[in-house]
Specification:
Blueprint lengths: L7 H6 L30 H13 L10 H8 L3 E4 L7 H8 L9 H21 L7 H26 L2 E2 L15 E2 L1 H17 L9 H4 L5 H14 L3 H12 L33 E5 L19 H6 L5 E2 L13 E4 L1 H7 L5 H4 E3 H6 L3 E2 L9 E3 L24 E5 H14 L9 H12 L9 H11 L6 H7 L3 H5 L16 H4 L12
Antiparallel strand pairs: 1-6, 2-3, 4-10, 5-8, 7-9
Helix pairs in contact: 2-5, 2-6, 3-4, 5-6, 6-7, 7-9, 9-10, 9-15, 10-15, 15-16, 15-17
Length: 512
């Protein structure tokens, strides 16, 4: 007999957690659902476990679908790759723009967002009744509101017309959820972030040894700036980013401790440089969870590491890169290769297996969409291969940057230019753009919209920003047209077909 799936919001109302493929991925915390609420949140320890559960969704990667991987696949910088045209079909159809309501990464991205929101809403509903230190409770509330805003921001950018839920969904209402105007969603996002910023118990900095990855006030300002940028509220965006970037671009922000790393390559040194001075908000992964093939979505390791490495990799000479064989996903396009080939960030970004093979330094097996160029930032290294329990392929520890300082520098420069401030020598936009360029030894250029946009491509290549940048700036139809992107349709993803069955949700007009 065929098992009938149920829409994700319905599953949340019933207390069924679908964030992981076969069991919960709660960092060894018991799953929190409506059926367990009566027996949980009894003290500060259980409240902290609930907070961990809200954070944990940041690393969602069920069915091998991550936000970074999906958005890379949809951009002009990557092709889906993999072992064949059906390998991780969510990436394949997004890369070729053959998406359909029942085909694509949208189901996993929707589930990620609403899993995080469900956990956040449960946390916010329960915290008032937990007997614990009130100042600690206020910090937990601030962190949870930031995370709820973060999940909603991803959802509204991807789907536009989404349900706005601020409390756990009652079982009696599970089929009656409706979508809200995007403006209402943005209003909640902004209010949640402002509430987090205003909370005096939210720290400006944290001890990265004991609290690395937790939300800080600087991260909240950065996220609010990004939200304003998407709303084209340029002056407000610039003001928020200025708080993060500090008075003098290129120098340490004394309040939050942010500073560009002196060496760009050090951003990608995996395990030894987590939560560094350039990291504003970072998703943590670990090699210690023992994740196995019986539940790939349950691992706390970074699955993207094994996905993007070259298939069948073999080193032939001692000076060959020390890589493990990967699955050849998200190969780099000729367009990105040509753009970055003579840029100082090229070697950190691109693994040129075509050159290594030609020169008998290393060999690999060509996969689907092969170009010979792979995403070096995330390709798995032998030095990171876990010797602990679980499948080594699923337990790489590299963290992922959601927001880093070079990103906020460039977003502030863009906001300043678009608010009609100049970009010539001596202007703040000029200083911000050229601090990013100076870090890699490039000479200064005038801060124009095109120069900033092109700098974002090279600085942030492969980090999941490119598709969003193309869509929000109106460049997507021109740049992605050769891949099949259609203006007026592909700027948003379809609401997953499963979510529409027996519910009041309506498909996005572009996809009806």
């Amino acid at each position: 007999m065929k098992t009938r799936q149920i829409p994700y919001i319905v599953a949340m109302a019933m207390g069924i957690n679908l964030a992981a493929g076969c069991s919960d991925k709660f960092l060894e915390v018991k799953p929190i659902g409506t059926n367990l609420e009566a027996n949980y949140y009894r003290d500060a320890t259980e409240a902290f476990n609930g907070l961990i559960a809200v954070y944990d969704v940041l690393g969602y990667q069920t069915n091998y679908v991550t936000k970074v991987g999906a958005m890379d696949a949809g951009s002009d910088d990557h092709l889906a790759g993999g072992g064949g045209p059906g390998d991780v079909s969510e990436f394949q159809v997004f890369s070729k723009y053959s998406l359909a309501p029942d085909q694509g990464p949208q189901e996993q991205l929707w589930r990620k967002g609403y899993s995080g929101i469900f956990r956040a809403n449960t946390m916010l509903a329960k915290l008032p009744g937990v007997p614990m230190d009130e100042n600690l409770k206020k910090r937990f509330v601030a962190e949870t509101k930031f995370l709820r805003a973060f999940y909603y921001f991803d959802l509204v950018r991807l789907f536009r017309n989404i349900p706005l839920l601020t409390t756990p969904v009652a079982t009696s209402d599970m089929y009656n959820v409706v979508q809200s105007p995007p403006a209402d969603v943005y209003n909640l996002i902004i209010q949640d972030i402002k509430d987090a910023i205003a909370e005096t118990n939210l720290p400006d900095q944290v001890n990265i040894t004991t609290e690395g990855g937790r939300v800080t006030r600087g991260a909240a300002h950065a996220l609010l700036g990004k939200v304003y940028l998407y709303q084209e509220r340029w002056a407000e965006a610039a003001a928020e980013f200025a708080e993060v970037n500090g008075a003098t671009p290129g120098q340490t922000n004394a309040k939050y401790g942010y500073n560009l790393l002196a060496n760009y390559d050090d951003l990608w040194t995996r395990n030894s440089n987590k939560f560094n001075s350039e990291s504003v908000f970072e998703v943590a992964f670990s090699s210690l969870s023992g994740g196995g093939w019986n539940c790939v979505g349950c691992t706390e390791g970074n699955v993207l590491n094994i996905m993007v490495g070259p298939r069948g990799y073999t080193s032939l000479k001692p000076d060959a890169p020390q890589l493990t064989s990967g699955w050849s996903f998200l190969v780099i396009t000729k367009s990105l290769f040509d753009a970055i080939h003579f840029d100082p960030r090229y070697k950190a970004t691109v693994l040129n297996m075509d050159s290594l093979k030609t020169n008998n330094i290393a060999n690999y097996s060509k996969g689907h969409d092969d170009t010979g160029w792979f995403l070096n930032k995330f390709a798995a290294r032998t030095t990171d291969r876990t010797q602990g329990p679980g499948a080594p392929e699923l337990n790489y520890p590299q963290n992922m940057y959601e927001i880093r300082l070079a990103d906020t520098y460039l977003m502030e420069a863009e906001a300043l230019i678009k608010s009609s401030q100049g970009g010539g020598a001596g202007t703040r936009a000029y200083q911000l753009l050229n601090a990013v360029r100076a870090r890699v030894g490039l000479s200064p250029v005038i801060a124009t919209d095109d120069n900033i946009f092109n700098e974002r491509r090279l600085e942030l290549a492969g980090e999941g920003h490119r598709w969003f940048d193309l869509v929000r700036t109106g460049r997507a139809a021109t740049v992605l047209g050769p891949k099949g992107f259609k203006a007026g349709k592909h700027e948003v993803l379809p609401i997953p077909l499963l979510e529409l069955e027996n519910t009041k949700l309506e498909q996005n007009p572009e996809w009806k």
